[in-house]
């Protein structure tokens, strides 16, 4: 939105948009039509980006779309059991999900990345033996690298569990134990905290 009254949907992100946006540093300008110039690109990325002969330009609108996609992939999370995988392989919302218990809600292992699993495929058969294939089909937060990239806090006298990402500062996830209420919101600068490994 340019006036906070009329709103429109952003176009879907492509892999090319994400690759271009990853090369940009600094904060957003606030103008969707602003065009970024590539100033610091290594040789490998330059060859890939300049292969058609003309210098590529990325508009702020495209960078915004790509950044939202990056944030969703990296820190978009759900509580364990909120979604289930059917025997045919499709994933759907679990109508029987009544929330995590307070004890479970305090553990990082009770939350999953809501994206295609990466670490799960690398687990041994022995590690997979304890997992329930209908609920444990996504990557758990407890194995995120670097270790300690999430904080878990209790708010409102222990009635709300809040997780915050230290990798994407401004991402806050909440869950009310024993209820279906959960969600996440991002209020940040759109910059990844690349200094996190040195801060832990």
TrEMBL record:
InterPro entries: RSP9 (IPR055316). GO terms for cellular component: axoneme; kinocilium. Its main location: other. The keyword Cytoplasm applies. It is found in: Cell projection, Kinocilium; Cytoplasm, Cytoskeleton, Flagellum axoneme. Coiled coil: none annotated. GO terms for biological process: axoneme assembly; cilium movement involved in cell motility; motile cilium assembly. Keywords: Cell projection, Cilium, Cilium biogenesis/degradation, Cytoplasm, Cytoskeleton, Flagellum. PANTHER family: MITOCHONDRIAL RIBOSOMAL PROTEIN S18, RADIAL SPOKE HEAD PROTEIN 9 HOMOLOG. Belongs to the flagellar radial spoke RSP9 family. This is Radial spoke head protein 9 homolog. It comes from Fregata magnificens (Magnificent frigatebird). The lineage of its organism: Eukaryota, Metazoa, Chordata, Craniata, Vertebrata.
């Amino acid at each position: 939105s340019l006036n906070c009254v009329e709103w429109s949907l952003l176009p879907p992100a492509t892999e090319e948009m994400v690759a271009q946006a990853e090369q940009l540093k600094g904060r957003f300008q606030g103008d969707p039509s602003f065009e970024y110039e590539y100033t610091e690109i290594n040789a490998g990325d330059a060859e890939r980006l300049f292969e058609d002969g003309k210098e590529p330009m990325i508009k702020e609108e495209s960078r915004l779309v790509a950044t939202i996609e990056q944030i969703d992939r990296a820190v978009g999370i759900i509580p364990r059991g909120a979604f289930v995988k059917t025997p045919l392989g499709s994933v759907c919302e679990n109508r029987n999900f009544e929330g995590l218990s307070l004890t479970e809600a305090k553990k990082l292992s009770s939350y999953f990345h809501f994206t295609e699993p990466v670490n799960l495929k690398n687990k041994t058969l022995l590690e997979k033996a304890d997992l329930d294939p209908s609920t444990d089909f996504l990557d758990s937060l407890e194995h995120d690298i670097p270790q300690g990239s999430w904080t878990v806090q209790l708010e409102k006298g222990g009635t709300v569990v809040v997780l915050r990402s230290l990798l994407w500062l401004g991402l806050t996830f909440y869950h009310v134990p024993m209820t279906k209420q959960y969600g996440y919101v991002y209020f940040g600068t759109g910059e990844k905290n690349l200094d996190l490994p040195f801060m832990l």
